[in-house]
């Protein structure tokens, strides 16, 4: 089995699974900064690269392109699709259009992991569907690590949280 067909089968299968309900994970941490070079290497971008590298290599072979030409076609195609995927998700994440669970956390409670400071978000842990999500957060309230918080909303992919005393409103 040649490497192009293998990449197409594995990358294409993983890409299909991702599109049918997978999640974006990053090799650079939970939420890499938009300007961080490592943020270009999300699992989704790498899988997109592999799938389209394989597809272009297989198609180039079918059209009679061989050797270095086939490799160049596969690398250019895979690189372009992988870069586009990374760029699109970085852009959407920076606008708050995608994120781990930010859109469904309003009203939930959690604990401060890293206290937010003026001009710098912190990090909170919130339980969603039995899983603990670590999410960037900002607050107008003075918070310390371990404090209970309630999620008020989200802006730009960062949660707005407030101190919570455990009582219902």
TrEMBL record:
Keywords: Hydrolase, Membrane, Protease, Transmembrane, Transmembrane helix. Coiled coil: none annotated. Gene3D superfamilies: Nucleic acid-binding proteins (2.40.50.140). The chain crosses the membrane at residues 45-65, 72-92. GO terms for molecular function: peptidase activity. One of its GO terms (biological process) is proteolysis. This is Membrane protein implicated in regulation of membrane protease activity. It comes from Deinococcus budaensis.
């Amino acid at each position: 089995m040649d490497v192009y067909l293998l990449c197409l089968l594995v990358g294409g299968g993983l890409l299909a699974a991702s599109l049918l309900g997978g999640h974006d994970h990053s090799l650079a941490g939970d939420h890499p900064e938009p300007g961080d070079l490592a943020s270009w290497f999300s699992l989704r971008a790498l899988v997109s690269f592999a799938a389209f590298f394989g597809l272009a290599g297989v198609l180039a072979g079918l059209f009679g392109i061989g050797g270095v030409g086939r490799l160049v076609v596969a690398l250019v195609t895979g690189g372009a699709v992988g870069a586009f995927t990374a760029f699109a998700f970085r852009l959407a994440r920076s606008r708050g259009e995608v994120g781990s669970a930010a859109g469904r956390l309003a009203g939930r409670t959690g604990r401060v992991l890293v206290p937010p400071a003026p001009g710098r978000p912190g990090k909170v842990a919130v339980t969603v569907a039995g899983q603990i999500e670590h999410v960037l957060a900002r607050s107008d309230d003075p918070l310390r690590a371990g404090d209970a918080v309630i999620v008020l909303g989200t802006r730009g992919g960062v949660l707005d949280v407030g101190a919570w005393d455990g009582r219902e409103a």
